[in-house]
Amino acid sequence: MTVTPIDLFASFIHLDRSGRARAEQPAFDTERDGWQLMAFHVETGADLHADYWEVHPEADEVVACLTGAIRLYLRPEQPGGPAGKEEEEREQEREEEIKLVGGTAVIVPRGRWHRMELDAPGDILSLTLPRGSRLEKRTEA
């Protein structure tokens, strides 16, 4: 087997149950078993899909800010039922904010809705088991 460098910004690393790791074309497959390691260069909020909440029900997610700065927001653990605009505004006030700068990381617990916002362009790395992951469009208050 030939060992060659992998461009982390052009590939995802898939780690399967057998312990095998391989570089693949970026595709966030929510039906596949195995962990995915993903690196992203972020220059705008769109690069972080800042307009969406996401959740990974099968595993924790490691989010690392390698360079630059981001803010990660966690929804309250026990949000109420369907939210109207007023309830949604109150919920936003209860979001937990975590600031990450170059060289820092956070572990987002499995099943916890989260989103990110960009403070300074840079590079982020994430590791999670994407099976069952979902995105939900943010509503503007």
From TrEMBL:
Stored InterPro entries: RmlC-like_jellyroll, RmlC_Cupin_sf
Region (Disordered): 75-96
SUPFAM superfamilies: RmlC-like cupins (SSF51182)
Composition bias, Basic and acidic residues: 84-96
Coiled coil: none
Protein name as annotated: Cupin domain-containing protein
Source organism of the structure: Streptomyces hiroshimensis
Source taxonomy: Bacteria, Bacillati, Actinomycetota, Actinomycetes, Kitasatosporales
